[in-house]
Amino acid sequence: MRLPKDLAMRTSDADILIVPGLNNSGADHWQTRWEQKLSTARRVQQSDWDRPDFASWTGALRDAVNGAEKPVILIAHSLGALAAAHAAAEFGPGKVAGGFLVAPPSEDWMRAHPLPLGGFETHPRAPLPFPSLLVASRNDPHAEYEANEDLANAWGSAILDAGEAGHINAASGHGPWPEGLMSFAAFINRLK
Description:
The chain is an alpha/beta fold. It has one domain (13-189): Rossmann fold (3-Layer(aba) Sandwich), CATH 3.40.50. It has six helices and six strands. It has helices at residues 30-37, 54-66, 79-87, 107-112, 145-155, 178-189, and strands spanning 15-19, 41-43, 72-77, 96-102, 132-136, 158-161.
């Protein structure tokens, strides 16, 4: 169901926080391209993109959300989606209007990663306190589709099957990712 335009949220009504994962999102990544196109978007900066520290990453996201002046919409990819889920309990009441969560890695992949990923190795299982859409690929090398289905159920997220889209990043051919932008637009049209 589509909301009338006066009830639907627009990107200009929100502070859009781009939440990249491990190693940040490079110039060709869809998150970087969207950040450049969306006037109210800004990236949540981390002190070390290559060695994620659980407290630092979740703290930076918590501070960005709680410091926002408008309702927040999160656009999170990979480890960024997990950071958002871990930090969610620390967001001020009603601060986040919605979360567009793309390709979170599985616990198995996280545990097998050569870097120590600390608190990120176990996924939170509590429902998220905001509407969310989890976008998952059928052939993501970092998570089986069923693992993301299970995570979406735990978080209370709707799930969007992206087909065989790899990790949904620049390396898998998702630079501009227009289909994702259309899905994001449909998602925010359902928010108010």
